[in-house]
Structure formats: structure tokens, C-alpha cells
Amino acid sequence: MKALHIAATGMKAQELNVEVISNNVANMRTTGYKRQRAEFQDLLYQNLRRMGADTSNTGTIVPTGVQIGSGVKTAATGRIMSQGTLEETEKDLDVAIRGEGFFQIDLPDGTTAYTRDGSFELDADGNLVTVDGYTVQPGLTIPDDTRDITISADGTVQGIDGAGNAVTFGQFTLARFVNKSGLEAIGDNLFLETAASGAAQVDVPNSDGFGDLQQKYLEMSNVDAVTEISDLIAAQRAYEMNSKIIQAADEMYSTTSNIR
Questions:
Q1: Which of 1, 24, 88, 120 has CB atoms 3.0–4.6 Å from 93's, for a disulfide?
Q2: What positions does the domain Flagellar hook protein FlgE/F/G-like D1 occupy (predicted)?
Q3: Confidence class for position 105, pLDDT limits 50, 70, 90
Q4: Residue 80 contacts by C-beta under 8 Å, 6 or more apart in sequence?
């Protein structure tokens, strides 16, 4: 009897499903977070009677056959890259992306990471950095005596210097990917390019195929509480049903072993 093993794979799959859902819920208020979804595939089948096999010398064939599955496996934990809601912050250096694109971040080892989290700060030298101190490409520097900083929809950064003159400090660039779901999440709201995502295509905001920027806003996560709760209930019920199958199989084994 293979029911024990099959039901066990079902319980493992739903356990992972709950872990993915719990991570989504935990990051409901994480800036720029993109929810994940567990995807499953059935395992190999045992053919007890193969469909299409001959059953007589006259060419009669089996119409359906007999196949017994061996359970389920996790195929992927795909990331849903839909737009999150924008929340106003009233902070000059908070920037949200509306549409396609990622901010480019220089990591200490020289690697370029990508993020939708636009909560930026200035370091001691006036460089635009993330909350972890990583430099934001293409390297914008804003002097400490600057006031009335504005970031336009196309990413142009301007302000008024100490002498009262309007100054342009540079322009943001964005990166987009053919398969953005193929990016590798490394934590800290950062992603890395992979062979699955394709190479980054870089251009200024509001250009063809790229989104624009919204100053004094941040993009919240795209996690929907109602969807996650309903998915959690469905995963819990599936887990319970698989556990019932294990109990039933165990009782059948017990009945067989008690035959005199």
C-alpha cells in the first residue's frame, strides 16, 4: 500500500505552501515586497496497464489503462511582480516606481542589485544611498545646503543651492528584465540578475517600456490579506485531508496484520 507515502508527500507540499503564505503575510508592510506563490507538480506514475496496449490479436486496444500516481512535489515558488499600492510619506527622498523597472544598487562586492524599495537617504558625503548605506546608481550627490529637492517623473533630481540657484544633480536610471520573476531575492529588498531573468535593460524613467517616478511616495507590498487567508485555509484543509488518509491507511494496515 503506497497511500502512506503519497499522503506524506501531500502533507510536505502543504507544509511548504503554508511557509510561503506565512512569509507573504509577514511582509505585508515591507516596502516593494512581491508576493510568492507555491506551485506543484504530480510525481511519476506506475503503469499497471498501459493505455493503448493491445488486448487481442485483432488489434483491440486498452482505452484508458491503469495508472497509479506517487504523490506531489514542489515545482516552484514563483514571485508575483504586480504593482503594489503607493503610499504617501511626505519625505523628499522617498521615491516610488509606477510601472516597469527597478532601482540599481551598488553592493560592497561590486555586484549590482535591484530593488523596488525607494526609501533613500544621504550619507555623510551627500551621496544618495539605501537605508543600508549602499550607493544608488548612477551615483547622485546632493550637497547638505540644498533645499527644496524635487524628483520629476523622468527621474531628474533638482534643488536650490545655498546661493539660491536652481541646480540639477543628475537623473535616476531604471533597469527592467524580460523575465523579472526570474530574479533571485537575496533579502534586504534586493534582487540579483540571473540567467532566467535575462540581462538588465537600462534607461531613464518614463522612456519606452519603463515606468515613471513619484516623489514622496513608496510602493507597498502587493500582498492581499484576504487572498492569503483564503489560501491558508485551503492549504490547512488539504493538509488535514492528507493526514486523514494516513490514518485510514494505518487502520487498513492494522486490520491486515490482525487477520488470523
A1: 120
A2: 96-158
A3: very high
A4: 34, 35, 36, 37, 181, 222
Tell me the average pLDDT of the chain. Answer: 92
Of all residues in the chain, the percent with pLDDT exceeding 70 is 98
Q: What is the mean pLDDT of residues 204-233?
A: 95
Give me the residue spans of the domains in the chain: 3-80+235-257, 86-219
Q: How far apart, in whole angstroms, are the C-alpha atoms of residue 176 and residue 100? A: 7
Instruction: Report the alpha-carbon distance of residue 203 to residue 172 in Å, rounded.
Output: 9
* Amino acid at position 143, single letter: P
Cell numbers representing residue 46 in the block:
506506475
Q: How far apart are CA 217 and CA 92, in angstroms?
A: 9
| Grid cell of 66 as nine digits | 491503469
Separation between Cα atoms, residue 244 and residue 250, nearest integer Å: 10
pLDDT tens readout for residues 106-116 = 999 999 999 99
CA separation, residue 243 to residues 14, 224, 234, 249 (Å): 11, 29, 14, 10
